[in-house]
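Much of what follows relies on a compact textual record of a protein's fold. The record below shows the convention in full:
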Amino acid sequence: MRTDRLTGRVLCGMMAAAAAMIGCEVATEVAEEQPPITLEMLKSSVPRDTSPQVSGPDLAAVVAGNNEFGWELYRDLAGSASGNLVCSPWSVSVAMAMTWAGAAGATETQIAEGLHYTVGQAALHAALNRLDLDLSSRGQGASGREGAGFTLRSVNAAWPEKTYPFLDAYLDVLALNYGAGLYPMDFMGAPESSRVTINAWVAQETNDHILDLLPQGSITPLTRLVLTNAVYFDAAWQDTFNRSATCDQAFHLLDGGVKQAKTMHRKGGYRMAADSGWQALELPYDGGEMSMVIVLPDSGTFAQFEQQVSAQSMAAVCAGLTVAAEVAVAIPKFSYEYGAVSLADALQRMGVTDAFAYGLADFSGMDGTRELYISDVVHKAFVAVDEKGTTAAAATGVIVGTTSMPLESFTADRPFIYFIRDNLTGQVVFVGRVVDPTA
């Protein structure tokens, strides 16, 4: 059962943490003898709205805003880190929207501007609910990469300090629009075991691809609320690659070096696009409702191209995709994890400043006071691409506390950017880059 799986993870995680503190090992047999730990979930009296009424313009505005934020976040992370990168702007947008539901004054305004929320509170929450329901309906009957069927799952949870008086109206917004389970935690008395519990939930919801989202020390006795989103994606290609055709092929690195990377090969009819300085290929997943788009800048131009990437430029890439008669595709296999990384600095560079400053933050919509502020926003993501398809997962935790053109070939043999999008709404779910597929 679902509860048993989570209980086992929580128990093992807590014992491992205790063992690390005293410098000893704990045998599996000892863990099995411990009494089970149950995770209490409180149900809101308000059920989730499974048929939210959202206007077409509002839905389009929310998708556009989410994608604008996503590519802005990508540029910020890409500029401050080296190596491969993957993140889920969808996950961050949803987690921050649950936080925004309790914001007021300048804090509310700054979050809206930084996250590109261009519609009002009620309209945004309803639209995100509509998008989540739409995304969860994709791939009916389609195949997945990991042996089961196509999966696109986005799940939310709220973890309040059990003694803290949050407003019912705020918790009802989370239940109505996000289906967020409410799990009271003893942050004041047992912050470390609370952290282990939240990480266990994230691991479960991402099929164990996102482990240890919240690092040690991130949860303290001053933590009052953690808001989490976990997203898991597993899909087979519409046309799988033959494993026997995979072979080592040169991949040209940013520093001019060359590495031999396991490269998949296939010929077929694909949609492609090209313009001055780049070419692009769309790889559809089984069912045709979602796809990966790979954008390959010309040799020697990756850094410049990356600095200029935006929602508008990537939308233009998608708009320009047309079917080529036959394409010889060569793409490296890759698999890597990114994070757990703090997004606090990135969000503050985007203008979300008051929310992180005690005394300036206004989350009075959560508890009726000005005592709460965001102590951190943590994000972690994983992606694996091979002959079968793609598995990707991500999770975001918001920690709230108090204080005292047609082409004949497409060879991705150099750094490239990719994103996974819903073809029906245009919502970008994952974005990333590959600068070294062997890393």
Observations:
- Residues 7 and 37 are 5 Å apart (CA to CA).
- The radius of gyration is 22 Å.
